[in-house]
Write a structure and sequence with these properties.
about 230 residues; mainly alpha; single chain
């Protein structure tokens, strides 16, 4: 079949039945050129299961079109290797549906490049489950955009480790809303840098619970401005 695929025109590729595609081997998939792979229709992509995608190379996956990517079922999305996801560009990752984002594994999230993670919109960020929020590395956290941080639900904020919070840029700390700050526990607050504490807005400081306030170190308190203390 591989030798036959090599000689097929793109319109012939687009005409392949889903039953034919389901029988392709890894050797067959390897025979697809970039143009042939992109010639597959959205309905053809929608018919492919985990077995097919386990045989598709990263080079092929890198050229998948956004409309084709969006029709992959959640089982297929979860089965994708970190190398396959890593081959995607920001436009492709940004095109994933919230259902697809919600089904990502912790390993998949943890291995996204900072650019690809930042390509997720606010709705996509809110679709990440608590385990995936916890899987974000400190390098990824340090590069997050303020809009994405501000979009996190309180239960997602509660899943952030002290090291993840400590990696956030001061602009991201400023972007936190009072309800998000109120969700922080004493361990998380104790992990904030003095510059981050200084970036907290007055209303956010007032939202801290008693245990979190007691967790503030002398250095953290000294970093507060008079307006914050008097607020």
């Amino acid at each position: 079949m591989a030798s036959l695929i090599t000689n097929l025109a793109t319109d012939q590729i687009a005409a392949l039945s889903t039953s034919t595609l389901s029988r392709l081997t890894s050797e067959d998939w390897a025979a697809f050129s970039t143009d042939q792979f992109q010639a597959l229709t959205t309905s053809q992509f929608a018919s492919l299961g985990t077995r097919a995608f386990s045989q598709i190379s990263t080079a092929q996956f890198a050229v998948i079109e956004t409309q084709d990517l969006r029709v992959l079922n959640t089982a297929v999305v979860r089965s994708l290797s970190t190398a396959q996801l890593g081959a995607l560009g920001t436009a492709q990752v940004g095109s994933l549906s919230t259902n697809q984002v919600a089904t990502l594994t912790t390993s998949q999230v943890n291995n996204l490049s900072t650019d690809n993670l930042n390509s997720l919109g606010t709705d996509q960020f809110r679709a990440l489950n608590s385990a995936n929020i916890g899987a974000i590395s400190t390098a990824q956290a340090s590069a997050l955009e303020s809009a994405d941080v501000a979009a996190l639900a309180t239960n997602q904020v509660a899943q952030l480790s002290s090291s993840q919070l400590g990696a956030l840029a001061t602009a991201n700390i400023e972007a936190l809303g009072s309800q998000q700050v109120a969700a922080l526990n004493s361990r998380q607050v104790a992990g904030l840098g003095t510059d981050q504490v200084a970036a907290l807005e007055t209303q956010d400081l007032r939202a801290l619970n008693t245990a979190a306030l007691r967790a503030l170190s002398t250095a953290q308190i000294d970093a507060l401005g008079s307006a914050q203390i008097q607020g």
